[in-house]
Amino acid sequence: MNHPIRYACLLAAVPLQLSAQTAEQTEHVDLPAVNVTGQSRTASRDSYTVPTMSSATGLPISPKDTPQSVSVITRKQMDDSGATTLEDALKTTTGLNVVRRGNRMQFQSRGFNIGSVTTNGLHSTIASMQGNNLHDQKLLMDTALYERIEILRGASGLKQADSEPGGSVNAILKRPTAQPLAEIDLQADRWGKVRGVFDVSGVLNQEHAVRGRMVGVLERDNSFRKYDDGDNAVLFGTADKTFGNNTKLTVGAVYHRQTDTPLGFGLPIDLNGSDLRLPRDTNWGADWNKGTYRKIHTFAELEHYFGNDWKLTGKLDYKQNKSKTEEAYLSGSCVTCGADNGMLPLDTVSRHDRYNHQWTGQAELNGKYSAFGRRHDLYAAYTHSREKFNIRMRDQNTQNRSFNLYTWTGGEIARPDWNSFDYQDYRNSRKTIQTLTLASRLNLTDRLHLILGGGYSRWRNSFIWYRDTKDGVPDYQAGNDYPYKKGRFIPYAAVTYDLDGRNTLYASYTSIFKHTSARDKDDKELSPVLGNNYEIGWKGAWNGGRLNTTLAFFQTEKHNEPISTRERHPETKNWIYAPVRLQSRGFDAEIAGDLTPDWQLFAGYTYNTRKYTATAGQQQLFVKGADFSQHTPKHMFRLYTTYRLPGAANRWTLKGGFNMQDKHRSWDVKQPLGGYTVWNAGVQYQPNKKLNLGLTVNNLTDKRYYENYEARTYGWGYFYGEPRNVVFNLKWTM
């Protein structure tokens, strides 16, 4: 991986070779907005790209005309790769670093966290993968619910308030279909995982123009690790009704319940930096470890089409999450880890009870207007969100116990009585965010387009932290309340120039603004976090828009990022933080779509370097010039393709791909982990139009590797990637 430009040029060259064979095959037709939505859903099921998307600017424009780095994981991509969770899907796309933190996964782009995970464009701070993993809920997003997933790399402040400069993820829920649909999808793998999905849709009442759709999931989830299992149940129902020719009401609800086995903080290495080569099924948690999660999501959406290409959309969304986790596990350093009698300390015995709920309302206006003799596009939106978050954490004294890491069975520690504890911790927060967004695409000439916009966001936040001991004696920060109010304007500017009907050049500037509750040495709240993203690039659309290509060069910055000084305020006992400034540079190259009607391809390469550009202290890990995200590989290359054989063999489809990255390291371990490539391959057979049989082998070469982990050290943070796995799939379609 010493020649990053070579990979980018390779991806960019593919459509140029194809363009000689694929002159415009279809005449361009401007479709009404109502039909564009339907076309996107059809493309999502049949292709690796979509004709339009709106996650970046709110304007429904093509990926080629979107002046930022964007990717789309379509329904077909999720089905072909066998991705059943959001993290599985994001591991297959360009530039997304999926980082493990115990049982949950954190998503990162360009070295920064993805702080905005949305559904149908509505920002959710519930389980948004930020902050200390002890105080966040698990993200419950089963891919059976979604038609596609849109990814934006770079600052998303125009549409997503309180986000991160790395980007955002927007999952689009399935909607009712006009044509009857009935699918049953069954899956089983080598480890004993069994999964069943049904998806039915169609017209419920022709006379009253009512359509409905229902999706259900039942899953028993076993892992390659010892006593690591769980279950998963999802039920999703949605219906829509049209009123006349211009108005449609859509309502829906999701119930999601899941159990799993908390894994703690992973395996250690020896203090000399050598790999212990432990069995890959090693699990140093107690055999009674269990997490239970429940999510309820309801929504309503009203769309009204006016004359002259205007549409008004109103959305109301409610999410409620509740969870309980109980866990004990070994973690920490040991002097003789490499010996048969290596002892590892008991790290924690704890229980967490969490409850969140969030209301979000949004009004959006999309349309076209005339000015200076031309037609232009406009997007306006107002979003109001209110969230409440509570957590109760109870810890028991580990009594300085240690256990032999080679003879550990998981039964050495009895499940405790949680009415007895060493201390308990209550945290309650309330957050209200209001955002007003306005953007316009000015079509200055037939080829030159200017997108200008901005969002004004206002935050109101309150946080209470209460802690006491087993005797009921208050500990530090008892009853402290930190109210916060702030507003800020977030600008957006971009320009695109069409070289011809297939090639576009662009440049863009985007930003973010984010509240932080971190406090300085005087116990005052730090200034809000600011982020900027500068980007230039080229995009192409081929085969009538069914194949999209991108080459983007970026610089992403983050200012006032709080870094712990590892000291506490002498009176309030708050941790003291200092602001730092971060910079990330690199480029993305991507090709996604249909090379031919029977050959789909997705390939994405990212080259990324990062550093601190200013620091407030002289800590070893956070000095100027150091890499602020050492666990993010400099090179990442993902490829996946499917090919339906021609002629008499057209019942067979071959598929395969790989996930490649170079070496990476973590905070406290100087010795980096080597790069790796994980290969996947599979075959599908369709004996008739209704039945599809599939066999997939993941990690084809049985590569032994460790997953990316942000805070890896000698005593913990090492999680084996999944060994070779064989997955059988049966799909029946009416």
Overall description:
With 734 residues, this protein is mainly beta. 6% of the residues lie in helices and 53% in strands. It is built from four helices and 32 strands. It has a 22-stranded antiparallel barrel. The protein has a five-stranded mixed sheet with strand order 1-7-8-5-6. A hairpin with a 4-residue loop joins strand 19 and strand 20. The chain is globular.
Cα-atom Rg, whole angstroms? 26 Å
What is the count of DSSP helices, taking H or I runs of 4+ residues? 4
Going by helix content, strand content and strand pairing, the class is mainly beta
Tell me about the biggest sheet? 22 strands, antiparallel, barrel
Rounded average pLDDT: 86
Helix content: under 10%
Uncertain parts: 4-40, 128-133, 476-480
Offer a quick outline of the entry.
The protein is mainly β and 734 residues long. Helix content is 6%, strand content 53%. It has helices at 4-19, 33-46, 75-81, 86-90; strands at 69-74, 96-101, 104-109, 112-113, 117-119, 122-124, 146-153, 167-173, 181-189, 194-205, 210-222, 229-243, 247-260, 290-306, 310-330, 343-371, 374-395, 402-404, 423-443, 448-469, 480-481, 484-498, 503-514, 529-542, 547-568, 575-596, 599-614, 635-644, 652-661, 676-685, 691-698, 725-733.
What's the arrangement of secondary structure elements?
Layout: H1 4-19, H2 33-46, E1 69-74, H3 75-81, H4 86-90, E2 96-101, E3 104-109, E4 112-113, E5 117-119, E6 122-124, E7 146-153, E8 167-173, E9 181-189, E10 194-205, E11 210-222, E12 229-243, E13 247-260, E14 290-306, E15 310-330, E16 343-371, E17 374-395, E18 402-404, E19 423-443, E20 448-469, E21 480-481, E22 484-498, E23 503-514, E24 529-542, E25 547-568, E26 575-596, E27 599-614, E28 635-644, E29 652-661, E30 676-685, E31 691-698, E32 725-733
Parallel strand pairs: 5-8
Antiparallel strand pairs: 1-7, 2-3, 3-4, 5-6, 7-8, 9-10, 9-32, 10-11, 11-12, 12-13, 13-14, 14-15, 15-16, 16-17, 16-18, 17-19, 19-20, 20-21, 20-22, 22-23, 23-24, 24-25, 25-26, 26-27, 27-28, 28-29, 29-30, 30-31, 31-32
